[in-house]
């Protein structure tokens, strides 16, 4: 993603999830740029790359003219989820660009529009302080306009956009730079299809969270998307599907249903997901998210958790994990020497109590590939097939994948 080239100029990191916006967007991206600097090459390639990725992109095809921007163009900015501001050497001598920028920053404040500044041939400090060639262009406009009030507004806007997290071209390959921008955009708009739960092309129903600064995705497969032995609706004597919102004893769920274990002797739960929808070049941890209802039993022995990538004949070594919350009821922050002694004595992982009151067990970790080779599937498994002890009371929320 954009991590290697991201520049942070005092902007605070925020965390977006798939329910973060209720605004109705007609465009995914609005492109703000100085035509004579970048239209024929950089913007043309960026625009066609975004469109090829099926990202709805608005680009003003008319040459900049005059000072006043049409209401239709302002409307296009308002209806765009993301604005990409390409700051080039001559950007600041265009009233057109600067008026668009004022509108973009208004939308950022009023409608939580995401703004990505791209520093193309200029440094963030040159934009912030109007120095170098960028500053000369701005001074040239001031000499022509002789409107101190408007110049002060534009100056404040340039300072604000320069302080946002963005990306700088520097001496890198331009085509690679464009691909990074497209991936960054894709990470923010591709899975915002439904509030709180997003539908993926392969039919998986999962929850999505995205770190705005790094662009890294955290994903969670709902219990209904896992393969649970004897877990179909036709076998309610073993597993039952219950509406999470109607249970007064379960933690709040981001999904409509969770799986409640009535009674089984064997546990065999699997989750699969295509690696191409994860962040590339990222180490992920997989976590089984669950709870226990009052009266649960049969979980004194460990289960086996493991992860297998599609190109592996076998996954990594299965690891012992204890689901019984009585083994450890503390949070991650409360772990201590006592827990380390327990793990050593029991030779297995202990559950963590999350802030959302669900429990989690780490199932393992894996690395995704680059943009080019990030294809395939990862399978997460939780099994207990040897002890043959009756079990009851487990509530399966899902499996979560988080960058480490």
Verbal overview:
The chain is α+β, with helices and mostly antiparallel strands and 404 residues long. It folds into 2 domains: 6-189, Rossmann fold (3-Layer(aba) Sandwich), CATH 3.40.50.10140; 216-403, Jelly Rolls. The chain is built from 8 helices and 21 strands. The protein has helices spanning 35-52, 71-78, 95-111, 124-129, 132-145, 148-162, 174-189, 337-346; strands at residues 6-7, 15-17, 27-32, 57-58, 80-87, 114-119, 166-168, 198-199, 205-211, 217-222, 227-228, 239-243, 257-261, 267-274, 283-297, 303-309, 319-321, 352-353, 359-367, 377-384, 392-403. Strands 2, 8, 9, 10, 12, 13, 15, 18, 19 and 21 form a 10-stranded antiparallel β-sheet that branches. A 6-stranded mixed β-sheet has the order 1-7-6-5-3-4, with helices on both faces. The chain has a 5-stranded antiparallel β-sheet with strand order 11-14-20-16-17, with no helix packed on it. Strand 18 (352-353) and strand 19 form a beta hairpin. Helix 1 crosses helix 7 (174-189). The longest helix is centred in the first third of the chain and has 18 residues, at 35-52. The protein is elongated. Mean pLDDT is 80; it is low at 1-22 and 190-203.
Question: Any key phrases for this structure?
Answer:
404 residues, alpha+beta, Rossmann fold, Jelly Rolls, 2 domains, ten-stranded antiparallel beta sheet, six-stranded mixed beta sheet, 8 helices, 21 strands, disordered N terminus
Question: In a few lines, what is going on in this structure?
Answer:
By secondary structure, the protein is of the alpha+beta class.
